[in-house]
Structure formats: structure tokens, C-alpha cells
Batch of 2 targets.
Target 1
Amino acid sequence: MSDTHAYDHTPEAEFGDFVALLKPRVMSLVVFTAFVGLWVAPVPMHPFLVFCSVLFIALGGGASGALNMWYDADIDAVMNRTRGRPIPSGRVTGGEALGLGLGLTVIAVMMLGLTANWFAAGFLAFTIFFYAVIYTMWLKRWTPQNIVIGGAAGAFPPMIGWACATGGISVESFLMFALIFFWTPPHFWALALFMKEDYHKAGVPMLTVTHGRAVTRRHIFGYTLVLAPFALWLGLTSVGGPIYLAVALVLNVLFIRGGWQIMRRSEETAIADNYAVERRVFKLSLYYLFLHFLALMVQHWVGAW
């Protein structure tokens, strides 16, 4: 377990520090994909219930972020890109982060059960547990497959959104899950290629650290190939259509092409141009997921109209 006591002698925290604990950038992805899952579901919900459901899913995502930062305070203090976070920088104590995470978990799960249904609430509780315990406390520090298996936590929100409306799961919600699940490894491994030293210093067994960059490059390309069929299959279900399929086809061709370019590059070439291709593919991966879910929204709106 992380030694968070080293960060407990802190000045009084400001409101923005507690917001930062919720990982708002990650939460925005949770909110968006959960909303899309709810939006395209075949069972309509009252707009107020939609707002409340997405709000409580967002609070659940924020709770996961706070619990993650509480446990990972020792790692965050070592890595350049995370040492400015509220706990390692001394603005928030570990106890405050833990209390916030547990409190928001209870509020989010209970209120989602009262707002939508208890199946969705249970799903949200499991997702928080999976991210905070299975991924953060176990997988992240134990196996180079941490991102692969742990990526499920970030892939559950559209299924939770779908469950809020329907009370269950379906092929459509599973494929939305698969889209995020298989997108996660190439997305994070592209980042790890030019951030390897951070993970090495922190002792995190990212694939780049345990198996090297050459193996990581091959894995990135392999996952782009695995991802594409699931992305296109989603377009053939009741939530898909020609608009979504056109967007998915273009994005997956570009993503596979980027993975191929990464795989073919030598480390010497990458160092010489400061990992320009890897950075470009990482940026593409951000647009990739957003545009897929945006296309689902547009396809649903056009179909309803």
C-alpha cells in the first residue's frame, strides 16, 4: 500500500485542489461516453433523469480518480507529469483524498440507484471498485498488462449509461465497451513510448519498461488491427448506420496506418525527431474515440429526425 502519510502535513487546501483530485479531464471522457450510451439506448428517459444519471456517473468517475490519487501518491511524486498533483505537491492530504473518494462513491451509487435503477448503480459500484482496487492497487504495480486489463474500468461508462435507460446490457453496449477497451492499450502505449523514463523511475511495469520499445511498437499495431472490426461491427447494430460507418472507416484506416508507422520505426529514428510520429498517433487516438462516440450521437439524431 502507498505511504501517503508523507503528504499529510499540508497547508489548507483550496476548492480547486479537490476538483483536481477528481481528474476532471478523465471525467469528461466518462461523462461523454456515458451520455452517448444513454442517448442511443432504445428506451427514452426524462431529460431531468438523464441529467441526474450522467451527473452521478460523473461523480462515480471522480470518486475513482480521488481513490487512485490517494493510493498512487508515492508514484505520482516521482513522475514528472504527475508530481504537481494535489497530494504529492502537498496541497491535499492523503486522508482528505481518501475521504472524498469514499464519500463520493456512496453518494454516486445510492443516488444513481434512486434516479435510474439499481442494476446501473451496482454496475457503477463495480466499476469504481475495479478501477480503485483491481487496477490501481493490484494490476498497475504488478503486470505489464495493467493497461490492457485495467482499461475495462474506463470502458464501462457507456454500458452504465445504457443500463440507466434499459436496466440491462446488450450487444450494442458491449461493442461500445469493446471500442474503448481495445482503444486503451495503443493510446497509452503510444504515450509510454515518449514517457518511458517516468514509468521506469516510478517502478511501474509498463510494457515499454518490461519488454522494451520494439515490443511495444508491435503491440500497438496489433491492437489497432484488433480494434477496427469491433468499431465497424458497432456500425452494423441498431445504434449504427451510414454516418457512423463512414466516420469509423476513415478513423480506423488512419489509426492502423499510424500503428504501422510506429511499428516500422527504429528507436534511433524516433529519438532523432523527438518521437514526432508517436506523439502524432497519440494525439490521433484522442480524436479517434471522441469522434466515434460523436458519430453515434449524430447517427441517432438523424435516425430519430
Target 2
Amino acid sequence: MGRKWNNIKEKKASKDANTSRIYAKFGREIYVAAKQGEPDPESNQALKVVLERAKTYSVPKTIIDRAIEKAKGGSEENFDELRYEGFGPNGSMVIVDALTNNVNRTAAEVRAAFSKNGGNLGVTGSVSYMFEATAVIGLEGKTADEVLEILMEADVDVRDILEEDDAVIVYADQDQFYAIQEAFKNVGITEFTVAELTMLAQNDVTLPEDGQIKFEKMLDVLEDIEDVQRVYHNVDLGE
């Protein structure tokens, strides 16, 4: 297991102080999920997953409703789902997921973010083999043993269950995301500290000070790109 999720989320929260940026990215992701299937989370599992994630980031209902209504209204706006893989300073590994209506623009902006900050884009598969697609679900008020018992009763497979700070975090294959949440909801647990589908690095790297500064700048530039939804990496950002 790679980094503890609470450490990742704390660092992400410090980077994502601009909540309007977070909300805009969720609005786009909700619209795409609703447009690709039924605009009803009860019959569209992809949409349901996005809405569960949005809930843990306190995305306002107005933004969620606006994105779903836009999809219902038959908007002609279409987005391509793209994944870029590359290397940051000192050989660090980075995965960038984007939703874009202009592939050339996004490619140029992502390439520039890498090249101007000591990194370079790689080919598909160049770094993703060092990451694991993972469902991460966290909750408070239970012990790891109690969570394990709930999931065993529901016959849900998980990779790991860890107590991290004041929460219990469940790590599993992404296809178990919905089953884990249903297992908890069946015993009355409906609030989660985290509900994410992510890419976790198998191993972290610690960069020298100059490499760390370059990497964090690159990370900021990538996350500021409008079309970039999420960035995954294998760097220990420290305290």
C-alpha cells in the first residue's frame, strides 16, 4: 500500500484552496457522466459515483443540479476523456486525467506544464504500471475491526483497512466502490470522510529540496489547467 490517504488529502486540500476551481471541475465531470448515461444517479452508476465524491468535497447542490440540467437539456457540448503520463523532476512519476473539448489545447498546456518545470511527457503506459487503480472510502465512528466485520457480512472484497488519524480508511479495487458504500449504508452509515476513485502509487519517492520545489510548482500549474480533472503522482510531499 502506498501513501496513507489522510496525508494525501491534507496536501490536496492545501493545494485546492480555490474551491471555485474544485466546483468547476466537478461540474464538468457531473455533466459528462449525466450526458453519457441517464441523468439519474439511481440508474447511472458513473453519475452516482461522481455525486458521492462531490459530497465529500461539499460541492453545492446548485452546481450539481446545473450540470445535470445541462445534460438533460441536450447540450451539444462534448468532452474527450484523456490521460497523460509523464515524469517530473528527478524521475518522479505523474498521471494527469483531463476532460476537454479541445484536445490540441489541452495537450499543449499539459506538455508545457511538464517541460517548463523540469519534467517531460511520456508515452501511454510509461508510468501507470507503477500505480494501482483504487477505491478509497473513509468514515468516522467505527474501528477497523468493526468495519471489517461489516464488509465481511456483505461479502465485499477489499485490499486493506487502516485506521488513519480519526478515521477508518478502506482500500479496494475500483469495481468495489459501490458495493462498499452499499454495505455501509445498509447498516445506517451514510456519511463518508472520503469517497474516491484514484490512482495510488505503489511506492513513494522523496525528492531533494530543489526537486521538491520544481515538482510542487509543476503540480500547481497542472492543477490550474481548466481541462485537468485530477493529477496523481508518487512524490512524498512531506509535512
